[in-house]
Each structure stands twice: as structure tokens, then as C-alpha cells.
Amino acid sequence: MWSGKVNAALADTVSELSPGTALDLGCGEGGDSLWLASRGWTVTGVDISTVALSRADAEARGRGVASVTWRQADLETWEPEGEFDLVSACFLQAPQEFDREGVLRRMSRHVRPGGYMLIVSHAAMPPWSHNHEHEDMPTIEGERAAVGSETEWDAVIAEVRHRRATGPDGQDGMLDDNVVLLRRP
Prior knowledge:
24% of the residues lie in helices and 32% in strands. It is built from five helices and seven strands, in the order αβαβαββαβαββ.
């Protein structure tokens, strides 16, 4: 179970955008979807976990939020209908085999002209991790390349951000996150 709170990087980067339609990839228990909806967005939250979506739906009902549609789907095979003003992929990373780059590329095709693609990812393992052998951690360059050529997108934000976090055993540490906000011209 997660906190139910919005991802800070999403809130920071999207708060100034005009609300429209949003696609929240790997929405989990719905923290980002509900935050977007509370700010006027019409959201489709997609996750593979029916348990997470059930919790998200219960929270939405409890808050009286009706502008979120929950969709259970495997992002490696699912294809959304239409275009969106915002496609968000926050921490869309998995420990098992997952065609993340393919998902990002395919989903980026559903950003309408003038719309945005937000990708937030772990740039490094946390300091309390026992497994520091992750050579395949996403990079800013890799995130940008995953959604197509640089001529297809204007980079609004493309940086590594640091944030303080608490580990599972109470450890205090700094985490590095890639934050990439692209706009389709």
C-alpha cells in the first residue's frame, strides 16, 4: 500500500498546465490520478493490479471524485483510444522483465499536438539498497530517446532531481530521480 499522495515531481511539473485529458500509466492506488482530477483534469488511470485499482476506486468514491476512469490492463499489450493532453509515466519501473521503452514509445503516440509527456523514474538505486548492480537504470537521454526523436518533442524539463526519503528500516537518504517533461509541438 502506498501513501495515496501525489508524486511531488508530477505536482511540481504539472501544476501550471491547463487541465485537459490525462492518461496515468501504472497508476497504482491512484494518488496521481486523484490529484489531477482534483485540479480539473479528466483522467484515465491504468494499472495491471485489480487490487490497486479497487483501492483507487474506493478512495475516489470516498472523495466524491467522478472524473477518473480506472482501467485494468497490461501496458505491454494495451492500446488506449484517442489522444491526451498529458500522458504521465511516474516510476513505471518493474523488477521483472518489462518492455518499458516500448510502452513509453507506444503511449507517447497518444499525446495530442500541444500536449505533454511526463516521465519520472529512479535514476539510481537508493543508498539502503543491497543491490547496487543496476547498470540499466534509466537516464535522461534514454527517457527522451524512448519517446522518439528530439525533433518530435520540445524539452520543457530534462533533469535529475534529488529528494530526501526514508528507507524501509527508517534510514534517511537522498534519492535521485529523472524528471522529463516533453511537449509535442
